[in-house]
């Protein structure tokens, strides 16, 4: 039997984050929701999703994420994980991290 999976959508610094987690509960800190066991793609394939990589770098070592209640947009119980996302809060468009390009050579 597989464990329950939650999709947590919340506001952070003008962006809407979508993360997946195995545990969601009212936190011990009053007014906060506790998110534990964050789920990320393992990245075994050739194609690397830059958004997933950015989320893993930011939250990969997090044991518990304590989110203020007012920052949470939605918590959904889902069957399977889809692509995590970071969206602009105003437009709803995905925030794409540009591929690093080498600097222009001096003339």
Automatic annotation (TrEMBL):
InterPro entries: DUF1820 (IPR014949). This is DUF1820 family protein. It comes from Marilutibacter maris. It comes from the Bacteria. Pfam families: DUF1820.
């Amino acid at each position: 039997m597989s464990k329950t999976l939650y999709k947590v959508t919340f506001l952070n610094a003008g962006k809407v984050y979508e993360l997946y987690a195995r545990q969601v509960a009212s936190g011990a800190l009053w007014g906060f929701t506790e998110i534990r066991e964050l789920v990320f793609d393992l990245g075994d394939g050739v194609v690397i999703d830059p958004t997933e990589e950015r989320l893993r770098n930011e939250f990969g070592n997090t044991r518990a994420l304590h989110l203020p209640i007012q920052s949470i947009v939605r918590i959904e119980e889902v069957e399977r994980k889809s692509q995590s996302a970071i969206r602009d809060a105003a437009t709803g468009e995905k925030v794409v991290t540009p591929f690093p390009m080498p600097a222009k050579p001096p003339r």
